[in-house]
Structure prediction request, 649 residues.
Amino acid sequence: MGLIDFSKLKSETRTFAGKPVNVTIGPRFNKMGVPAKVVFSLKSLMEGMWLTLSYLLSPSTVVTKEYPENRLTLKFPERYRATLRLTNDENGFFKCTGCKMCERACPNLSIKVITRKGPVSDKMELDRYIWRQDSCTFCNSCVQVCPFKALNMTHDFENAVYDRRLLIYCLNRYAGPAAGILAAQDEETRKKMMEPRQPYGGNVPMNGYQLPYLKALPGKPADPAQGSNK
Amino acid sequence: MISEKIPTSVDKFKAISSDNISVQESDDPGDRIVTLNMGPSHPATHGVLRLVLSIDGEVITEVVPHIGYLHTGMEKLGEYMSYHQFIPITDRMDYLAPMLMNLGYILGVEKLLGITDEIPARAQWLRVLYSELMRISSHLIWLGTSAIDLGAMSPIFYALQDREQIMNIFEETCGARLTSTYFRIGGLREDIPDTVIPMIEKFLKDFAIRLDEYQNLVTGNPILINRLKGIGCLSKETALSYCCSGPVLRASGVNYDVRKARPYSGYEKFKFNIPVYQEGDSYARFLVRMDEMRESATIVRQAIDAIPAGPVKIDRTDIILPDKHRTQGNMEELINHFILSCRGFNAPVGEVFSTIESSKGEFGVYLVSTGGEKPYRLRVHSPSFLNLSVLPAISRGSLIADIVAIIGSLDIVLGEIDR
Ligand code: SF4
Ligand code: SF4
Prediction:
């Protein structure tokens, strides 16, 4: 950059529309004569053009990812954080005990854990695990604090829906005690302990509330985002 | 028969102007000033900044920045959350450099707790490594967007391509590209995966070539030099009196960088230069950032060459959540885990102010604690806010087109200004 000669700044007062305005002026890039300027400009123009051309000519530098087409071959980093899920053990039972630690740790109240007294065991157990994806910041705090490793974040990131209320899920597919207790029971008792829950059933949409002008959603809309959880 | 023509608006106008209303040049020179609104949603204001320009012809006589369109009340939010819960919120301040925001906040809390010296060496080292990657990524976005403001289209594609590599590194490390939430009070959330070091190596290799290409494509380009040189001149005295910091201050000839002046997180162990330019114009600010990227790359190089071994979390289970396998075997740690997750830790009474060098300048956090798990007062010293405040002083007398270049060279992020 030897062509440019910096000099000192100077300050002066100019008059604009009758008002004095303090202006700081620096050197403009006009130290060169016209021929030198033309040569310099052309040279750097060619350099820039050559750079873009060289990228055009070498296909190895193509970085474009054909996203919707490569959906099946998408690779995610292991720690990628997206949709929250309750982890299931090998029998398909969730491990959550309903201790509500995640609810307290969440910085923006995106989790609501509703517990109930178990009809068979007479102990506290999970009734509904409500997760508001619309306000979740995917900070992972809930996963970190869960002492039973009952939560994890899956790699499902395509969660677009047309109605915001559809982003409020009930994560558990049945109400009942945690996996450890269920596994110890025989088939008969287990059936009595578990009560089915739907992703959008019950009071889940609008976080359990029905507004005067907005009804709670009915039943169970078909939602592909729910497919990955049992 | 009288054919009556329906009067059109042109006829009406003719009728009026042919009356005795005459348009006259006003004698008052102040009447020549036109007020022009730029923003709040304008591509060149880099966010939701509204500028009210007073212009005389094409020349700007006064600029009044109106801010607050992105106000989210983060400082107040911080007073109603436990210290750990606030970390994800800091990501949203300077959304182009979230890890630096995390770092600024957690260093403040660590100072309050008095555990600054106990942070494991590995954690500190990795904090520096990721801060510098973040700085490069933030500067790359600045390079691309400010070049677009000046009419150059290609640099942003190259810049985003490089930044994409950094984003992939972050994604591999902590699972998110921007809202990283990786640093924790007392260490890091978890150790880095093994796969990330080759990615950083590859990035450094590519980036060295890229820096030379930027030199050809952008820095030496006469159009860019014409647009930036002598525009928005900021003298040393003005810069200091407006409390500017970061590249804006260093372009005005003040050699001040928190990383050297008050080293934090082990910056004193790294060798790097602070680029300083004397001219104070937009081009000098441009060059400072370009040089800073080069310096940051050398810091990253030094950092990955000698990462110390050891833990990444302080050995205090009442401050930071330990690894899961530890919690499940030990009753005392389980109790600590419950207390920490439900309530947070109790901070001692006191007040601290701690600063870091973020990509925009000196980012500080002021914390007042009256005990308990929440701060009594949280105040953020935001570099973009102070750098923006100098805008009226340096853009008087320049053209409307120049103000776009000046805003680009100040490199502001509205999320941090309004916080
Ligand atoms: S990821 Fe964060 S914001 Fe989302 S539910 Fe968990 S704790 Fe709440
Ligand atoms: S997910 Fe974990 S932390 Fe949350 S209620 Fe269930 S067991 Fe407790």
